[in-house]
Amino acid sequence: MSRRPGLGRGLSALIGEARRPHDEDTTPPAGAVREIEVARIYPNPNQPRTRFDEAAIDELADSIRARGVISPILVREIDGGYQLVAGERRWRAAQKVQLHLIPALVKTLDDASSAEIALIENIQREDLNAIEEAEGYRKLIDRYGHTQEQLGKLVAKSRSHIANLLRLLDLPADVREMLVMGEISMGHARAIIGAPDPSGIAREIVEGGLTVRQAEDRARAAKPAGTRSTSSSGKPRAVDADLAALERQLGDLLGLKVKVAHSGAGGTVSLSYSSLDQLDMICQRLSGEPI
Prior knowledge:
Structural class: alpha/beta
Strand order of the largest sheet: 1-5-3-4-2
CATH topology of the largest domain: Arc Repressor Mutant, subunit A
Number of domains: 2
Number of strands: 7
Order of helices and strands: HEEHEEHEHHHHHHHHHEEH
CATH class of the largest domain: Mainly Alpha
Largest sheet: 5 strands, mixed
Shape: elongated
Strand content: 5-15%
Oligomer: single chain
């Protein structure tokens, strides 16, 4: 399949192609990369990522010390200074090595566009945990009026994936913290949404090493008898719960609807996409290309 022009370009589709100015240029042309004082740059309040791996930043600082900043950061000019839009890890690492100047692409962006690009960059780099990603979506919905459908198109993920992430914000604070710290998975967290005591079940998951399937069974058993899901015949649903859990797990990973059909010793895995951008994301994930 020939590659569709424009697909797989990531942030370049939003911010334009960046090229370093020639040494003989005295005035950087519009859209060119320029050198900006690190001290004049400040963080983006709409940065969705709230936790930074200091060890990873130290490694990046060592790389910058040896080879410099290879990829420019993205900023916008505000009140005589520059606000970060994308590239906060590089900026933090540059500070660690006491770099005076850093290559940057300066773009004219409004608050909504700045928040969108900050979210997309982190999602493409897979730098966000599920709660940070959900909070990023929530900000775009509450502050700038985005719909779940619009967000899905923006980040090339399904609307149901956006909806499932937003539901995580309904969990108690202690359960959200367990998810952020990696003590439970997104599948675990989704399983106990709506349970009478999600905090208690989350502790059971951590202490007992419960699988997602076991967490679902525990949450289902904790609900009052009259609210448990049953089939039209009144009997428990006969859907293969293991396959359903696998579909949810793969769906959470890809942000798309996944269907697993198993028969005998084999079967099929189907991925549903609603746009060429989502198809391109699938192709890049399967080929190992950077997203």
